[in-house]
Amino acid sequence: LLISKQDADTMTIELKGGLYIVSTPIGNLKDLSARAIEVLENVSFIACEDTRVTGKLLFRYNIKTPMKAYHEHSAERVKDKILSAIAEDKAVAIVSDAGTPTISDPGYKLIKLCIRNNYYISAIPGASAAITGLVLSGIPTNRFLFFGFLSSKREKKSNELSGLVNIPTTLIFYESPKRLVSTLQTMIKQLGNRPAAITRELTKRHEQVRRGQLNDLFLYYKSIPPPKGELVLIVGGMVKKIAAVDDNLDQIIINRLKSKSLRDTSIEISDETGITKKLVYARALALSKPKS
User: Which position has the higher pLDDT, 211 or 250?
Assistant: First the structure.
């Protein structure tokens, strides 16, 4: 950012020409960052999913910048206008209705085109429902896989989940309220009864987090009307328990030490087996010493 004019009452910012990927609040409008406000005030125009939704945010902060609708139905038509503006060294912002653009929202293809044309791109970070839901879930956050929306078709959804069975990391999904019960039922069938959490209306007045085993959540949501609001579903990863410190564990440690440190090996295997890190580390240390 280049400050081109400043006095006691006003500050005009001259932005470098290019695409600015601006994260917006996922619920609470107070979560818009100062840098995001600065960029949105000073770009030539804002490409957004829904001008009505973004308009409410701009009104809240008295931002007068023009908007252009950019969504899956208008993307091709508006895309050329965005690229032409950037080619003329103008700054253009892209926002989604809520959260970080391109995360289950339009924008990826536009970014790829900007990269191909060697245009300047900057990301203004902010809220993401996936990360907010994850940190509230109480499920391990050290490693996770974001899947987004599962297929709405039952068979395809089942196949997608079957491909995630052996992944040992936390899984994050978006889901619609009307499909939640069906999805939970399919998850139990394909993944087993794992710890999980469902978050909705994140950062809003009626924010809710419900934690429990998948089966508990299924029985609960089956007994009530579909919940309102955006849902994030967090599911624990596959846990493979090893019964004891034996030759099988030794071989796992030896294989893991080929690419990882003693510390990382101990943490990973402890998480996977339930054996304390201290015991795994001691065994790994003994196995890593050269034989005399």
Answer: 211
